[in-house]
Design a protein that fits this description.
With about 350 residues, this protein is of the alpha+beta class. The protein is built from 16 helices and 9 strands. It has a domain of about 60 residues. The termini are far apart. The relative contact order is 0.13. Keywords: Signal.
Amino acid sequence: MPLIVSKAMLATVLLLTAGTAIADYSGHPRAGELLATLKQQYGFGPDDLQTVRDALASAQTVPSLIEAEQKAPERTETWTTYSAKRVDALRIRRGGQFIVDNRGLLDRAEAEYGVPGSVIAGVLGLETNFGRFTGNARVLDALATQGFDHPTRTPFFYAELTQYFVFCREFGLAPTELKGSYAGAMGWAQFMPSNYRRLAVDFDGDGRRDLWTAADAIGSIAHYFTAYKPETRWHRGEPLIVPARRLRPLADSLQRNGKAVQYSVEQLRAAGVEPAVRLPPQMMVGLIELQLDPGGADDKEYWIGLPNFYSVMSYNPRVYYAMTVSRLAAGMSAEAARLSGDPP
């Protein structure tokens, strides 16, 4: 007996084969809670709520986005592999040229917020290669899939889905149209919806906060580092990291790769880690241990993280991420100096 496949069945098969499927999240058990929150806390009226219902009904579930979040390279690669893909000559050349081309905006951002232009360029280079790739996943699908179906992080993504609908109403944008990362981050600066609403700035004075433009991305990143959290506020005039050397085998109890400063310089020296430059003995820092590809006499590399290193980690809470921004900032600054004929 021949198998008869309807057009509707064929469409479903094609969607599933492509790793997506229409989910109609408007019928999800938590959809009513989301609508109630938007109504009660953010004053959504009937038309606004209908827009949300329609968006949820059209949302697709994309399991590959959850997999991408769970297998982020910051979690799975060695430092050698991770950095080789990102601290590359082409990205550094582009970053140096970006600094030269946007000198006025970057200098103004540093004057207002204290964040060096090279650090801002490092973030933009790592996040989106200076706007060349801002993501091709629908933000609605990314946040709905992970806000309703993520096995471990639904509270975070559910909150961001809520903020996304508020953001779209505030900015006059259709929630079904925007594209971003697998996690729902948007624009050159890759802000999540809550951070976009709270921390994005109109740095070019055109009346809009548009993170798909270089100017607003520059100002917003600098603002982020000074306003995201008081405890991670940028320290004007301080570096991010200094190299260190291990004096002897380190105790297992010595904390590595934390998300905040943990020890004084004096305590780390007593534990067997010496900074390569002189630092105040009582200065609070963190110990960074980088896993290199195995096989050498010592497959680990050590650095001292200063408060600004952990400010960068507030952007992405992975040591490899902040280390890459630090390395890119140094390389891009040197390249910009070369292009401008300035002393490095």
